[in-house]
Amino acid sequence: MKKKPDFKLWLGIAISAFFLFLLFRKIDFAKLGSAFREMDYRFIPPAILLTFVSYYLRAVRWKYLLLPIKKTRLGNLFPSTLIGYMANNLLPARLGEFVRAYSLGQKEKIGTPAVFASLVVDRLCDGFTILLVLLITFFTIKLPPGMEHIQKGLVTGGYVTFTLYVVVLAFLALLKSRTDWTVGLVTRILASFAPRLAEQVATQLRHFISGILFPNRPREILAVALSSLFIWAAAIWPVDLVLRSFGVTLPITASMFIMVFLVFAVMVPASPGFVGTYHFACVTALSAFELRSEQALSIALVAHGLSFFPVIVAGLYCLWRDKTSLKNISAENDSQSGAPA
């Protein structure tokens, strides 16, 4: 049977191609090459190290989020985190989240839906931490005159993101406190146009909500909060190091400003690895500080490369060590998605 074209994948590739066209259409490649030649590469190793520190801290936070289910080992959590982020860079539709959950579930003998549910809480922690970063940036950033429209757009994005997270939290709260009623409502809505899908979603929601647990001890809650702050500190610092490698010295709030734009960028459908959207967001943020296009694009290319290639190498090594492959995990995902309710 001929496999149907993946519409989401091709749409993402088209969006990425569009943003790449916008970026490169007026670039002077001689000046772009000159920017790379002037780069101080001594800043890159510590930037890579800090990127992996942020992944390790994610594994630490994940350990605390999973405590209500099982006491897990960092020796399993860290490789699964690397594998998940590697998969996000290589696979469409953020399938890395499933890969990450599946990898740890196999190692710790936990059901994949329950592990995946912990990643929803993980993402909510990220969301509220980046909203805090957005708030700090809004009150402390000083943009050059004439760039007020960018700051206004930042505030609008913050409101949209905050609304989105409130809606998600409200749905999860309803699903947790009134599971039967919420699942019934979702089922009735879906059954009107997709009865089979409605049954599958109802089953998956019940499995999923069983994993939505949060640590209730003050020490564990504090650990989740602090690790969230350190995760994003370790993610923002490399941006500052990349700027310095190109001779750009800006306050750390500028790196926070850029990071907020990058977070919004990865929400936009794009090709695997967020090619195009990531670069466009980075260049747009840097334009607020009146950097020339070629220098801004060179910074975006290096920043993206640091978040793309090292974790792919590390994740593939972890997969090889586990004697598995993305193909096998994707096949498992397909079989679970197509399993009858």
Automatic annotation (TrEMBL):
Q: Which UniProt keywords apply?
A: Cell membrane, Membrane, Transmembrane, Transmembrane helix
Bilayer topology term: Multi-pass membrane protein
GO cellular component terms attached to this protein's record: plasma membrane
**Out of the domains of life, which is the source?**
Bacteria
Q: Name the Pfam families for this protein.
A: LPG_synthase_TM
Membrane-spanning intervals of the chain: 7-27, 39-57, 77-95, 115-141, 153-175, 221-239, 246-268, 296-320
Q: Where does it reside? A: Cell membrane
Which NCBIfam families has this protein been placed in? Answer: flippase-like domain (TIGR00374)
| UniProt cross-references to PANTHER family, sorted A to Z | UPF0104 MEMBRANE PROTEIN MJ1595 (PTHR39087:SF2)
Name of the molecule in the record: Membrane protein
Origin organism of this chain?
Geomonas silvestris
